[in-house]
Specification:
Helix content: 40-55%
Shape: globular
Order of helices and strands: HEHEHEHEHEHEHHEHEH
Distance between the termini: 8 Å
Bound molecules: pyridoxal-5'-phosphate
Number of helices: 10
Largest sheet: 8 strands, parallel
Length: 236
Amino acid sequence: MLETEISQIIQRNLDTVQDEIAHACRVGGRSLGDVRLVAVTKYAQPEWLQALSMFHSVFAENRPQQLADRQAMYPDAQWHLIGQLQRNKVRLALQHTTLIHSVDSVRLLKRIASVATELRIRPRILLQINVSGEATKSGFAPAEILGAWPEIAASSKSLQIDGLMTMAPAEDDPQRARPHFRELRELKEKLLTHDGVKDSGPALPELSMGMSGDFAVAIEEGATLVRIGSRLFAGL
Ligand SMILES: *Cc1c(COP(=O)(O)O)cnc(C)c1O
């Protein structure tokens, strides 16, 4: 496929997705400036990323090595990590990312805090919550997060806990994702009113939820970051 053709397809997909984001904001009474599109490039070929980079500059990868390689190629873009992070890849990830969405255990959080201290940086992270309870998904169980908060808060001197992230189960009907997104928003509200959390400071501004199939519903339920991959590259 010709470069110009790739570029046209991606531009059209991006326009459509942005229109749908704007529409969902109107439906949900959200302001457009509060919702950001994170373009998931994990399956994108280098030419697609090249084309997309002309129009967009917030990207996400699920593997630290590909994140590092691509961040080095597009250092002016923001690169987020959305996939499971192994402890031995924390240093690599921290050197190349502006936001880790997928912090799924206290153990990982502590590792990130200790490497960040060494690197003299204060990275931004989100806590991944397994709202649906599916065994195949990682993340904190909603019921365990309050109990884990003292340990979570202890790490927050070395990193910035910016909010929560979740993945809804894959469904044909996006409405079925709604209760999971709502639960994440309610969990955030509950955390913010809980004394032990309030006192430890984080405002948890971000809710990372919604993918290609269900981002409109996620926005209606309060998403501030939508992670969209396949819709941007459809037709390529
Ligand atoms: C791949 C991925 C996405 C994007 O999924 P699409 O359905 O392609 O939009 C979003 N979030 C996570 C965690 C992913 O791994």
